[in-house]
Amino acid sequence: MAKNKYFTYEPRQRKILGNEKWIATLKKEEMCSTKEIAEEIAYRSTIGAGEVEGFLIALLEEVKYHLIAGDGVRVNGLGTFYPRVICKTVDDVKDASLKNCVKNITAGFRPESQLRESVKEVKMKKFDLTEYINPKENR
C-alpha cells in the first residue's frame, strides 16, 4: 500500500543550451524490492511470499528473453515492455550506419492507461523554497 498520498517535487539546476535553469523534479523516494512486492502480494492472496517472488523472477526472465529476441511484451493491466533503440540523425544516407546513428539500446516501458491514470490522481506537495534560496541559513 502506498505510504504517501502525494508526490514531493524539488528544484534541480540544469544546464540547458549553455544556460543555467531551474526545473521542478520528482523527489526520489525509496525503491521497493522484489522481495517486498512479493510479501505485499502474498498478504493480499493465498500464495506464499516465496512462490510470488519466484514467479516475479520467472516473469522478469521471460520478459528479458523476449526483449532480446526483439519482441514486445504486454502484461495486461501493467503495460508493454519493448526493445528501444535511441538514435541520432545524420545528414547523408551514406552516414546512416549503426556506428554513426545508434546511441543506445535499452528496454522501454509504456504503462497501460489504467496504471498511468492512477498515478495522475496523486496530489503534489510543494517543496520548501527557503531551503534552496538561503541554504546556509537553514542548517
The description of the largest β-sheet is: 3 strands, mixed
Order of helices and strands: EEHHEEHEHEH
Taking strands numbered 1, 2, ... along the chain, how are they ordered across the largest sheet?
2-1-6
Distance between the termini: 34 Å
Task: Provide a descriptive summary of the structure in words.
There is one protein chain. The chain is an alpha+beta fold. It has helices at 34-43, 49-68, 98-101, 113-120, 130-133; strands spanning 6-16, 19-26, 73-75, 79-87, 102-111, 123-125. The two termini are 34 Å apart.
Condensed summary:
This protein is of the alpha+beta class. The chain has five helices and six strands. Helices cover 33% and strands 32% of the residues.
What are its keywords?
flat; 139 residues; alpha+beta; three-stranded antiparallel sheet; three-stranded mixed sheet; 32% strand
Write the layout of secondary structure elements.
Blueprint: E1 6-16, E2 19-26, H1 34-43, H2 49-68, E3 73-75, E4 79-87, H3 98-101, E5 102-111, H4 113-120, E6 123-125, H5 130-133
